[in-house]
Structures are given as structure tokens and as C-alpha cells.
Specification:
Largest sheet of chain B: none
Radius of gyration of chain A: 23 Å
Order of helices and strands of chain A: HHHHHEEHHH
Strand content of chain B: under 5%
Strand order of the largest sheet of chain A: 1-2
Strand content of chain A: under 5%
Largest sheet of chain A: 2 strands, antiparallel
Number of helices of chain B: 5
Structural class of chain B: mainly alpha
Number of strands of chain A: 2
Shape of chain A: elongated
Number of helices of chain A: 8
Oligomer: heterodimer
Order of helices and strands of chain B: HHHHH
Amino acid sequence: MAGSAVVVEEDNEKLWQGGTAPMKASYGKLMMWFFLLSDAFTFSSLLVAYGLIRYSHPAFEGDAENFVFSQEYWPIPDMVFNGFPLMHGVHWPLVFVGLMTFILIMSSVTMVLAVEAGQRNDRKAVEKWMLWTIVGGLTFLGCQAWEWTHFIVGTDGGGSLLDGSIFYGANLSMNQYGPPNFAALFFFITGFHGFHVFSGVVINFIIFYQTVVGKLEQRGHYEMVEKVGLYWHFVDLVWVFVFTFFYLI
Amino acid sequence: MEQETKEQVIIPVDKAKIKHIWMVTLYLFLITAGEFAIAFTLDASPIKTVIFILMTIVKAYYIMSEFMHLGHETKGLKWSIVAPLVFVAWLIGALLIQGDAIYSAIYGV
């Protein structure tokens, strides 16, 4: 009993030096929150820039059935992102990104369960749920690699550029789907998000490793799991917005 | 003594807490399923856009409040994260108006 009381006092002193924790949060968790706030501004800027550029282009007038790719107007997302792995030439709008959303939300849930296990000092459960979270993150990255490949390679028919020539797929300066900025924004926004997922997987793996070798158990608490958990949920949060503004609207 | 402090006691699972996590997961899936249903049934219109944005904000609320645990932090922490987001609202307003102006300048409408 006396032993555990000593540990608590020591923790407090280490936490904020003055013996008290402002806003009842640890230094690391609070700083993670402020980092995520600044990261939220970065993503907001990218998504709002998408809004500005889309607003400065004409929208497609008419029924979605008659839609064809053109440099003259902004494409309808349903008509661009309608493929599915191993299903050539199908028109399944939103199905694949829906699956990606499902995968990312699931990996967020397993991360919540890892944090919950960490609060209970349950090392085995932390290992299990962290591993599932990493698997989810890697699966999402694989899906995104397919999505990019599909976008870059293009459709069988391609689309005509302003000079009348046929172009297949997309790069940063031109694409078959619509105005050049459409593909550029796709690469920047989903790429920046994908890079966050990638770094999230790396950070998750480091914490998973530290759990497995018993470093966190030795430390006496699993707060690192909570901190990387915050980052991982943020990545999921951003995807919810990317999904709406890039694929739904 | 030294040994005693380092010994880890595994606290048993609180079933209600786990159930709550899965309930939030269910809400997130239902909202996403709802977004799908709307995407395929309603024609493109400003109302559809507003519905999508509202559903996105509800999802964001659940992720931030429950998964990131912000809803259970102190009031000070909650507001120091949520209040600065008002700048994003300003950015949206400013840049969408600007986008409209660029469109008018190019296409003369």
C-alpha cells in the first residue's frame, strides 16, 4: 500500500515539475492535442483549397447518366471513383472508398480497445489490439495504393484534352477526368492523408514493439498507447472529412 | 518494496465500457450507411450537400468525443481544442466567396 502511494507522488512530480497537471492531462497528451489541432488546420487548408478551386470551375450541367469526361467542367466524383479491384470495367461508385472507410473505422475501434486494455495494465490485450490496429492500417494503405494505381492508369477509353488528343489516366499536370487541378488535388489531399496513415502505422508499430518487449510494463503505465491512439483517431477523423468532401459531394 | 511497486495488477474488464465502445462503432456505421443511401437516392442539390456535411460533423463529434475521449476531459482542455476551430469556419467562408469571384472573373457570370 505504502509502495503504490510513493509511485503516484513520483509520477505527479515528473509530470509537470510543479507537482500539478494543468487541465488534469499529462504533458505528453496535452501536447499531442495541440499538435493535432495544428495538423487539423493543415488539412482544413487543403480541403478548403479544394472547395475554392472547385468553385472557380463550372459544374457539369445535366443528368449524371449523360456525363462524359471533359476539361471544361469539374467531374462528378461518382463517375471517376467507380472501380473495384479485380472487377474490370464495372460502375460501382463509392463501393471501394466505402470499404476503405469501413477498414479505417474498424482499426480506430481496435485502437480504442488497445487504450482501454492499457488502462487496465493488460499487456496481452494491448499486444492483441495494437496488432489488429497495425493490420487495419496496412490494409488501408494497400487499398490506397490500388486506388492511386487505378487513377493513374486510367480507363480504357481515356478522355480528350483541350487540344483534342486522347489522354489516359492522370499525372500532376494533366488528367483524363477533368481540369488539371482535379488530379493535382487528388494526389495532394489523399497523398497527405496516406502519408499520415503510413507514419501512424510506423508509430503504432514502435509502441507495439515496446509493449511486446515489456518496456511499457516496466514503466508502470501504458500512456504511450493513449498518445499514439490520439494520433491514430485523428487520421480516421481526417478520412471522414476527405470521404465527404472528395467522394460524396 | 521495490518489487511490490513494479508489480502490475490486471484490472478486470468493465463490460459496460466495452459495450459503449461498440455502440459508438454502431452509430458510426449507421451514419456511413445513411450517407450511402442518400448518395444513391437524392439528386445533387445544395440540400444534399448540407445533409452530408451535417452527417460528417456528427461522425466527427463521436470520434472526437468518445474515441479520442475529449468529451470526458476537463472543460478547459475541451474548449482549447474546439474553440480555435472557429478559424476554419472563417477560412471556409473567405475562400468559397473568393472561389465564386474567380469563377465570375473567368466566365463573366
